Amino acid sequence: DGGTLILGNIEYLAPRIQRLLVHYLMQSRFTRKGESGVLTSRVRIIATATNVPVQGAAQAIIPDLLSLLSTSVVSLKPLRERKKDIPVIAASLLEGLNRKFNKKVREFSKDALNALVDHDWPLNIEELQQVVERAVAISDGKKITDRQIFLHFPAFSTTGKINLLRFPLFDDLVQHRFVPTGLQFVTV
Fold first, then answer.
1. E strands along the chain, which residues?
2. pTM of this prediction?
3. Fewer Cβ neighbours under 10 Å: the N or C end of the chain?
4. Cβ(44)–Cβ(1) below 8 Å
5. Residue 182 pLDDT more than 50?
């Protein structure tokens, strides 16, 4: 009560849940699942949507909910149109990811930042966050290099196979002089 609730990608909420949300927004009352008592609360709701689909689309926001949430709308350009923001956003993600993975990554190399800026980011910030998270997880130093940035992860084929040798990090590992001997030792 009195707080803020952030709902991400509301266009994916089921229509039934959207109607319940409309009911709450209009009356500030709700009933917990499995209970019969009615509770009241006042909450500020911030909702995000990738785009606002029209009614009848596969993922759509019902008109009542759209009108209630549209009091203040902030439209952001996609990440691919805000290339200068990418280094700042990526750097801001480091602190939380360092805590998550117990690392001490401080920065990105120039090549790593160039790789991030050159990418088109079809999935926007979610994709950037996944790429930076993966880089921090495999990082072994204080700087993320371009070898730790995996941008073009190919989709699995119908057979469920992926060629890891397409990635420079794995290719370098296989080319290492101790790999055949080490594999023989592990096998024995």
1. 4-7, 29-31, 38-40, 44-47, 107-108, 143-144
2. 0.60
3. C
4. no
5. yes
Q: Which residues pair with 45 in a beta bridge?
A: 5
pLDDT at 157: 46
Label the pairing between strands 44-47 and 4-7. parallel
Measuring CA to CA, how many Å separate 50 from each of 10, 114, 122? Answer: 9, 26, 11
Side chain identity, residue 1 = D
54-87 pLDDT tens trace = 555 556 888 888 888 888 888 888 898 999 999 9
How many other CB atoms are there within 10 angstroms of residue 146's CB atom? 17
CB neighbour list of residue 23: distance below 8 Å, 6 or more residues apart? 29, 30
